[in-house]
Amino acid sequence: MTSIGFIGLGNMGNPMAANLVDAGHKVTGFDLAVDVMDVARGNGVDIAGSVVEASAGKEVVITMLPAGTHVLSVYDEVMEEAMPGTLFIDCSTIDVASARKAHQLAGAAEMLSIDAPVSGGVGGAKAATLTFMAGGEQSAFDKAEPVLDAMAGRIVYCGDAGAGQSAKICNNMILGISMIGVGEAFVLAEKLGLSHQALFDVASTSSGQCWSINTYCPVPGPVPTSPANNGYKPGFAVDLMLKDLKLAQEAAQKSGAITPLGAEATQLYSLFSALGNGNMDFSGIIEFMRGSQK
Ligand code: NAD
Questions:
Q1: DSSP 274
Q2: CA of 73 to the centre of ligand 1 (A)
């Protein structure tokens, strides 16, 4: 049993904390929102009165927060009160520069730290099948692995500080771009009188194959579990994809990487969101390609 402070009990954090409790850990949680703390209490999480109380005296502190500014402000607040040697695991999706700064804050206070963003969404958080992408010292990762295990389907060590966040945004940039490409191909097929099933049968087994077509096909029919069969209910919402694409663009600008398709995808999802589709599954971008979005 490990004593764990869990800060940020939202859509992802709450089910993750519940899985840690189920695995036998002693979890103390805190969130700024009272309603989510009530849910956590019902799941067996002890509730603290502040971020400092949630992290003081714990072996591990996990954060699952909206953005880099939140993570850095929590780290600023709690470092002095936490036990030296505490392992800080940030599972939020944040910009690479803030992730590296968070590692510095932890290191300066003699703490261990890893960045460990996830993919798999709320469904994966509930089912304890998240993929964790981790960055930081190998020794910190080794200590984190058994804790992450209670929430994970897969855990990948990606390298030094910030490597987890780097892997996450690179992966999601591929995904955002590839979904647009697949959407365009289906729209062209429609114009040419080619059926969805015929394009799927060819592309999903040929050189066009990718997750966006094989697993998450953006038209109803060929992959019955894809959101296209469910009115594009997320899944992974347009606004979450947009957040990750913007983080990728920020990282590209800071590092000098040339990512024209990443930039274009960011523009397209931005427009699609601005038209009122931010809560739609991101594969609904095909509606934008058709010119048939609301
Ligand atoms: P959410 O908005 O539901 O939860 C974030 C929680 O953090 C909120 O409850 C908020 O009150 C709390 N919070 C903010 N500042 C705080 C502070 N200073 N102290 C304590 N609590 C604070 O968001 P979410 O969907 O749970 O996502 C969390 C992170 O996980 C984000 O970085 C997101 O990008 C990432 N993520 C989300 C998904 C998804 O499908 N929702 C998938 C992968 C990654």
A1: I
A2: 14
Which superfamily does 166-289 belong to? N-(1-d-carboxylethyl)-l-norvaline Dehydrogenase; domain 2 (1.10.1040.10)
Contact 134, 144 (CB under 8 A): yes
Whole-structure pTM value = 0.94
Q: Where are the domains of the chain?
A: 3-161, 166-289
> Residue 121's pLDDT band (boundaries 50, 70, 90)?
confident
- Average pLDDT on 110-117 reads 98
Nearest CA to ligand 1 atom 1: 10
Active-site annotation, residues:
168
**Pocket of ligand 1, candidates 9, 14, 32: which has the most ligand atoms within 8 Å of its Cβ, to mutate?**
32
Is there an atom of ligand 1 within 6 Å of 52 CB? no
Substitution site in 12, 38, 55, 172 for ligand 1 pocket (most atoms within 8 Å of beta carbon): 12
Q: Does residue 121 line the site of ligand 1, with CB under 6 A?
A: yes
293 falls in which pLDDT band (50, 70, 90)?
Answer: low
CA dihedral 55, 56, 60, 66 (to 10 degrees): 10
How many angstroms does the Cα of residue 65 sit away from the middle of ligand 1? 4
The full DSSP string for 38-97 is HHHHHTT-EE-SSHHHHHTT-SEEEE--SSHHHHHHHHHHHTTTSPTTPEEEE-S---HH
* Whether the Cβ atoms of residue 27 and residue 46 lie closer than 8 Å to each other: yes
